[in-house]
Amino acid sequence: MTGNITTATDFRNTILNGDSVQLMRSLPRNSVDFILTDPPYLVNYQGRDGRKVRNDDNARWLRPAFNQMHRVLKWGGFAVSFYGFNRIDLFADAWKAGGVPHGRAYRLSQILFIIFPFSSVWA
């Protein structure tokens, strides 16, 4: 899907593929019920085969992304974000800061740790 989205029905049951910050900017305010995101963890990951995750070595995208998540998330909506536990401070700070311009209070409800015996589940 390309172009600006003007109403919630314009993207209902639609997969949006692209830069998440740019896509969210095109969504109407308070139009999303649920956000599930598995962004880069900011841990400079490199797999055993040498592969890297794009944008996993810088946090420039983090605050703009969380700001847009706050903007598009409906009041009473729910957001889940995965992240590396050693970078929880960056993600929590971005989430808190993102709510401020939108008059939203930050509430961290639960942290669940899943520990794998190696860096990649399918290694």
From TrEMBL:
Molecular function GO labels: DNA binding; N-methyltransferase activity; site-specific DNA-methyltransferase (adenine-specific) activity
rRNA processing is among the record's keywords: no
Entry keyword annotation includes Methyltransferase: yes
GO BP term, example: methylation
Gene3D superfamilies in the cross-refs: Vaccinia Virus protein VP39
InterPro entries: DNA_methylase_N4/N6, DNA_methylase_N6_adenine_CS, SAM-dependent_MTases_sf
The protein's name in its UniProt record: site-specific DNA-methyltransferase (adenine-specific)
